[in-house]
Amino acid sequence: AKQLLPYREEPLLIGYFLTNEPEWLFQDVSLARLMLREHTAPFARRAFIQAMREKYGRVEDMNWAWQAEFASFALDQPVPDAFMRSPQAIADLTAFDARMIRLYAEIPSRALRAAAPHHLNLGMRYSAFKARAAAGYEHYDVFSYNCYQPTPVPRANAAAEASHLPLMVGEWHFCGYDRGLLASGLVQAHNQQERAKAIRYYTEQAFAHPSMVGIHYFELFDQPALGRFDGATGQSGLIDVCNQPYPEVDAALKEAALRIYPIADGRLSPTEETGLL
Fold it and tell me: 212-215 and 15-16 as β-strands: parallel, antiparallel, unpaired?
């Protein structure tokens, strides 16, 4: 939270992300399952044991529900196959996942809000929207997630229903095959003309959604021709490696920028021309 103190009174700063693409959601793993599988996270392990003790009362009842043979609630040894024991074991671990995620959001959010009371907490900037990520949403001002799809609307509907918050797409893009780099990005169009249509469609559909407050394009420049740190070399930029804009995309973004506020307040309808993907 101390990182925010120099910007505490900065009027041009909208807000901050709590973290970026936490790996447990990126890989879609159960935190509670990992906690039981390892000897790490002793405080979380104690909290889980207490939760199971309060729920079941007797270890025999937990064993019956989990189809397990625990000698006591101590659970001193790793439990490598907890998630495969029974449907009830999965339910208990999933519930504890939500508790861990909620605290993971709450504890730093309180410190950050104290350090920067005038700025927005933009959430964890998840790699994608999944319902389990909504735990802890009550500590955010904006719910953020990436959405590499032809349209942001279906996931925006789900995220709005789960979080009841304003939404921000943390990353999205479309790429073309006809010129520029040899590799494409995550969502591809046949050429720059179709890419421009797809970008305008995505933008206008986003701002027609009542919960959407921002869409953060990935990224301004094409990636390096020989690859970035992880080898990615996508033609995802609005500007190419020769520092020139893609004129078709540039024109589409200018057109969309003139329309997003009338679209947002219902005076205009968003384009229905999707682009050929």
Answer: unpaired
